[in-house]
């Protein structure tokens, strides 16, 4: 069967998007998703999303990681699917959609390339040694480090993601360093499901911003700029010393190209 796909990127985290409102794709098997996301044998992407109809919502986001498994929440994917929904005419400038972790509200700029996405509230941050472990829609490990620009993120991230604690369910591993002479942080992430470093991870930078507020005992209404390999993101939230709410992940979401490809379904 021939399908039309759209390739989006948000700060270099890239995705294949498909409009499945007519439910033409009844199911996508693991191998088909992995091949579509393959950078040599397919379109290429860190993940694949289906935009589907859902009663009571503007749309539903169905997210697969590049390895073909259905993933948990993807923050940059969420921002990209909002831009896609605007491109399709499903929404105008605000939206309420359903994802695997629940309801999300978002706003998109008039030009359609800047998305502010509300993330789930967070009330638990655990420790694993010096690292912080929390769930922002996907599970994240956050570790402060130095010399992040030359760090071996692939090997160090792989070792943590595959250690005895995390191997079975996996975890996304974020390394973070404060930016010198500027506000905010530089973050590099080894992503579960891609099983490699990506250029950005939205739920990851959200986890970093919350963990760093706890680490630095910063309370109230907070805005945290974060640099990643693929650009700049910003996280806004409230922290009362126990719970984090009104969490917004903000950044670019751009259509790169579109095309047709044949898939076995
Ligand atoms: N790139 C994503 C994270 C996607 C989910 C993740 N790989 C997982 O299933 O653990 C983001 O922007 O949040």
Automatic annotation (TrEMBL):
EC number(s) per entry: 5.1.1.7
Pathway(s) served: Amino-acid biosynthesis; L-lysine biosynthesis via DAP pathway; DL-2,6-diaminopimelate from LL-2,6-diaminopimelate: step 1/1
Compartment(s) of residence: Cytoplasm
Transmembrane found in the keyword field: no
GO cellular component: cytosol
Record GO biological process: lysine biosynthetic process via diaminopimelate
The reaction(s) this protein catalyses: (2S,6S)-2,6-diaminopimelate = meso-2,6-diaminopimelate
Site (Could be important to modulate the pK values of the two catalytic cysteine residues) residue list: 140, 191
Function field: Catalyzes the stereoinversion of LL-2,6-diaminopimelate (L,L-DAP) to meso-diaminopimelate (meso-DAP), a precursor of L-lysine and an essential component of the bacterial peptidoglycan.
Oligomer status and interactors: Homodimer.
Name of the molecule in the record: Diaminopimelate epimerase
Gene: dapF
């Amino acid at each position: 069967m021939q399908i039309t796909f759209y390739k989006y990127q948000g700060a270099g985290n890239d995705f294949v998007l498909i409009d499945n409102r007519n439910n033409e794709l009844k199911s996508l098997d693991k191998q088909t998703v992995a091949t579509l996301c393959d950078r040599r044998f397919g379109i290429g992407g860190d993940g694949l999303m289906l935009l589907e109809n859902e009663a009571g919502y503007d749309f539903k986001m169905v997210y697969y990681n590049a390895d073909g498994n259905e993933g948990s929440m993807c923050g940059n994917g969420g921002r990209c699917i909002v831009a896609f929904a605007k491109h399709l005419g499903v929404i105008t400038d605000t939206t309420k959609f359903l994802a695997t972790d629940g309801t999300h509200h978002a706003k998109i700029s008039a030009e359609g390339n800047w998305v502010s996405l509300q993330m789930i509230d967070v009330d638990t941050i655990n420790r694993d040694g010096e690292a912080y472990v929390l769930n922002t829609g996907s599970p994240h490990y956050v570790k402060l480090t130095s010399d992040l620009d030359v760090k071996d993120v692939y090997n160090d991230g792989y070792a943590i993601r595959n250690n005895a604690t995390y191997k079975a369910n996996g975890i996304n591993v974020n390394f973070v360093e404060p930016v010198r002479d500027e506000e905010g942080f530089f973050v590099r992430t080894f992503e579960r499901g891609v099983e490699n470093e990506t250029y950005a991870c939205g739920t990851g930078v959200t986890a970093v911003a919350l963990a760093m507020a706890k680490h630095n005992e910063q309370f109230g209404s907070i805005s945290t700029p974060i640099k990643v390999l693929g650009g700049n993101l910003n996280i806004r939230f409230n922290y009362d010393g126990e719970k984090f709410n009104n969490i917004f992940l903000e950044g670019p979401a751009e259509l790169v190209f579109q095309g047709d490809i044949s898939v076995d379904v």
